[in-house]
Amino acid sequence: HVKEVFLDIACFFKGEDKDHVIQILEGCGLNPKYGLKVLKEKALINVNEDNSIWMHDLIEEMGKEIVRQESPLKPGKRSRLWSPEDVYQVLTEGRGTNKIKGIMIKLPRRDGIRLSSSSFSKMINLKLFINSNAHLSGEIGFLPNELRFIDWPEFSFEYLPFDSYPKKLLKLNMPRSYMSGLGEGFKSLANLKSINLESCQFLTKFPDASGFPYLKELNLNYCISLVKVHHSVGFLDKLVALSLEGCDSLTSFPTRIALKSVKNINLRGCRMLNYFPETVEKMECITFLDLSHSVITELPSSIGYLVSLEVLTLAECQNLTNLSCSIYELQHLKSVSLFRCQNLAKFRKWSANSLPTNSNISPELRYLNLSGCKSLQEIPELPPKVER
């Protein structure tokens, strides 16, 4: 396992974030934490202050030479491919074999590679596919079932055109892609832990996610044509981070949520979204909620179920007229921004044009921004920790 970790770093992950590498290699069945520890003790790698993995150029080249010697004349019989010439030959001529475990495409300039339906057909043990900068066109008839990590920005096909979905896939990274839909087979990727479809500007809806019991991260930021997110997303027990920042067209979002593990929800800039869902049970992990630049008119009374919330941002929610009194149940709030909520005039169960003087505002509150709240005329005495 230590040798496998060493070769993966030399061929693919030099300079990458350590935690990111650990997540990927664990998904490939390795023990990267132990491997990195041993490699560091042997001075083969180091970890920089920014958490990136450092490896000397000579050691990197040594690792790559070990892989080359697996099959000096036939790159399709090596365990890893990274050389542009080798990758091009193997993919365009269908020379891959069951020896290949990982491929990284990193061309000296942004060129194209035309795939055929058989490009991946013999790579039954392929686990990593990383496309850094190539424009891939043609056909994809098959992706190996052993694939754990796909990193394919600017995916140029309209749909995920896989007849056989890689059912062991853990991480799907396809930002800035041209897909308008995800296809029926997408639902069969039951082991997914991370989905990144940021800036997929033609994607119109995110489908049923009830088949993703292990999903931890969902990034749909700046999917500007996204109209609908399936209600099942609101009930993903393992989801930690949900981000839909800048989804200008989003109107249909789960109306009820029970996200037991979620820490961050980002709906900033969803300019067509006029509600935040009802929380049907306590969500004890969430610390961050951003609804800035949305058109919500009020917060639901169930906002009090976000019991660990520390940061609440509602900046420039210009249609916001009411805050539920349940906000005073959030006793861990440290930062609240109501910047330019110019129509905010009322806190339920209290009089308009003022903050309730008898409320128990979070004793942890340090930052409160009410700039531009033109309808508010007075505020109560604030906790001593408030700085601004």
From TrEMBL:
PANTHER family: ADP-RIBOSYL CYCLASE_CYCLIC ADP-RIBOSE HYDROLASE, LEUCINE-RICH REPEAT-CONTAINING PROTEIN. One of its GO terms (biological process) is defense response. It comes from Prunus dulcis. The keyword Transport does not apply. InterPro entries: Disease_R_plants, LRR_dom_sf, RPS4B/Roq1-like_LRR, WH_DNA-bd_sf, WHD_ROQ1-like. Pfam families: LRR_13, WHD_ROQ1. Keywords: Plant defense, Repeat. This is Uncharacterized protein. The keyword Repeat applies.
